[in-house]
Design a protein that fits this description.
This is Putative hemin transport system permease protein HrtB. By secondary structure, this protein is of the alpha+beta class. The protein contains eleven helices and 13 strands. It has helices spanning 2-10, 12-49, 73-78, 187-194, 220-226, 235-240, 245-276, 279-287, 292-323, 335-361, 365-369; strands at residues 54-58, 70-71, 86-99, 109-116, 128-129, 139-143, 156-159, 165-172, 176-177, 180-186, 207-208, 210-214, 230-234. It has a six-stranded mixed beta barrel with strand order 3-4-10-6-8-7. A two-stranded antiparallel sheet has the order 2-11. Helix 2 (12-49) packs across helix 9 (292-323), helix 7 packs parallel to helix 10 (335-361) and helix 9 packs antiparallel against helix 10. The chain is elongated.
Length: 373
């Protein structure tokens, strides 16, 4: 380590160039992971935060709420099945609203309406106002991001293209679905909006999109064998079944994977070229008794120190960039994510340096000493 630090200080300019490149790579990785995490959260925060273990969908719906339609009576049957601790119905639809008192020139707002049973485990904690009630079918609790659009408690939302109006009675936090704010309403109120047109319920009595289950011991095969034309999936599968979620996550993951592969290649080339430039020095050290193990540890130590410093600077730059990003930017830098990608970057740098270590072990002191630079 002493020799590694000594050389780092002696060749500051060379190592600084590598550190700058590594810092920029780390910064790009953290920025991209933060944007990816922000987009995923904005897309599925409500589904992810749901206290659910399994969801029952209509068979053939591919675990998508928008494709599934079940009768609410399934809830009572499902709650009696083995392993089921609690069951609750759920519905969803997208809509556009504006304040009932708004002028026509004011902007409309896209929302996701989620129908739930008031007081059930699906109702999120209210941070302002009150919760839903069975009798208040036109009352809603909404994501607090709608405050930025000028909405407040007691405001009435008018649905675009409909005569339905909803009254805000409470605010909740971090509830988004398909990149828009969520508006929770009693399942009966959701049904009134969703199936207002005659025949749109397809003849199903009290339709819902899915049945949400709690219970660690649930066997999906048993549930599907007892309930006709259903498909029971895990909570994670239901999140993946959201329209566009899997494709969006896959794109971000692919970009990060390519970035990490390119990073490994770039860092490997830098360390290799740097080692080649010091062939004579390593030859002299070998001639005076330095072993391959000692020289290898010196190179790896240099890379380790360089990597730690570059990653820390990259993290600091990312938090700095996050502080000046526009308010609406979907950027969430999770500490677990930062720690995870830091370890990956460190591992890539160390592994890349092993190519240089292998080159050092093959240096012949006599040939190296006789080499003309």
């Amino acid at each position: 380590m002493y020799l590694a630090m000594k050389e780092l200080m002696r060749n500051r300019t060379r190592f600084l160039m590598i550190a700058v490149i590594f810092t920029l790579i780390a910064w790009m990785v953290f920025l991209l992971s933060g944007l990816g995490n922000g987009l995923q959260t904005l897309s599925a925060a409500t589904m992810k935060s749901m206290k659910a273990d399994y969801l029952i969908f209509e068979q053939g719906s591919k675990a998508s709420l928008s494709k599934s339609l079940l009768a609410e009576e399934v809830v009572a049957t499902a709650s009696q099945l083995p392993g089921v601790e609690a069951a609750s119905s759920m519905g969803s639809t997208m809509a556009t609203v504006r304040k009932s008192s708004a002028e026509k020139s004011e902007d409309k707002l896209d929302i996701a309406i989620i129908g739930i049973e008031p007081g059930s485990f699906l109702e999120p904690a209210v941070v302002e106002g009150k919760g839903l009630s069975v009798n208040g079918v036109t009352e809603v609790i909404v994501n607090d991001s709608m405050k930025k659009e000028g909405f407040k408690l007691g405001d009435t939302l008018k649905l675009d293209g409909s005569t339905h109006e909803l009254t805000i009675v409470g605010f909740v936090k971090n509830q988004t679905y398909n990149h828009v704010a969520v508006v929770f309403t009693p399942i009966e109120g959701w049904r009134n909006i969703m199936f207002a047109a005659p025949g749109s319920d397809k003849g199903i009595h009290k339709p819902v999109n899915a049945i949400v289950l709690q219970g660690k011991e649930i066997d999906p095969a048993v549930i599907d064998s007892k309930l006709k034309d259903t498909n029971t999936v895990t909570h994670e599968t239901a999140v993946q079944g959201m329209p566009g979620y899997k494709e969006e996550s896959g794109t971000i993951t692919m970009m990060l994977a390519f970035l990490l592969v390119i990073s490994a290649f770039v860092l490997g080339v830098f360390f290799y070229v740097f080692t080649m430039q010091k062939t004579n020095q390593f030859g002299i050290m070998k001639a005076i008794g330095a072993g391959n193990k000692f020289l290898g540890k010196t190179v790896v130590s240099q890379v380790f120190i360089l990597s730690i410093v570059s990653i820390l600077i990259g993290i600091a730059l990312t938090y700095g960039a996050a502080a000046v990003m526009p308010e609406g930017m979907p950027f969430i830098l999770d500490s677990k994510l930062v720690f995870g990608y830091s370890l990956i970057l460190l591992a890539i740098a160390i592994l890349s340096s092993l190519v240089s270590v292998r080159k050092i072990t093959k240096i012949d002191p006599l040939k190296a000493l006789g080499r003309v630079e």
